[in-house]
Specification:
6 helices, 9% strand, globular, binds zinc ion
Length: 138
């Protein structure tokens, strides 16, 4: 009789970009249960500024950056959308590797939001979310 060994990924594995679109030992469902990780205490940055983007044209409505995720192990911010969907060639991007430039963090966030890679990953995220919604209805 053989016993199956269940591989439990280490916590930091959730924050690794590998050759595949996401870490091979983590299913998409488990990945999205872990992201975004947005704690509001014991962090080296202002959570209101990082997690929320101020409303456009002074509407006063802040929008949550669902893609920003905090990696406690490395004390960095990462983009969960790009971790999952960015192409292999973008692996070296700061928001995939982890950003800890706290002094210029809002600039780094805006730069990332405007990047081609992030726009591609965001599109892929929403296509995936819609597919899940449709499967649920069928
Ligand atoms: Zn991104």
């Amino acid at each position: 009789m053989t016993t199956r060994t269940q591989i439990t990924p280490t916590k930091n594995a959730y924050f690794l970009k590998t050759d595949t679109s996401y870490h091979a030992s983590i299913s998409k469902e488990i990945f999205w249960k872990s992201h975004p990780n947005q704690p509001v205490s014991k962090i080296p940055f202002n959570s209101a500024v990082v997690y929320d983007r101020q409303g456009i044209q002074g509407e006063g409505v802040n929008i949550n950056r669902k893609w920003v995720t905090y990696n406690k192990e490395s004390n960095t911010l990462q983009c969960s959308f790009c971790l999952m969907y960015a192409p292999k060639k973008s692996r070296s991007m700061q928001m995939i590797q982890g950003c800890s430039d706290w002094k210029h963090i809002t600039t780094r966030l805006f730069q990332h939001e405007k990047s081609h890679c992030h726009k591609h990953s965001t599109d892929a995220y929403f296509v995936n979310v819609c597919e899940r919604c449709i499967k649920h209805i069928l």
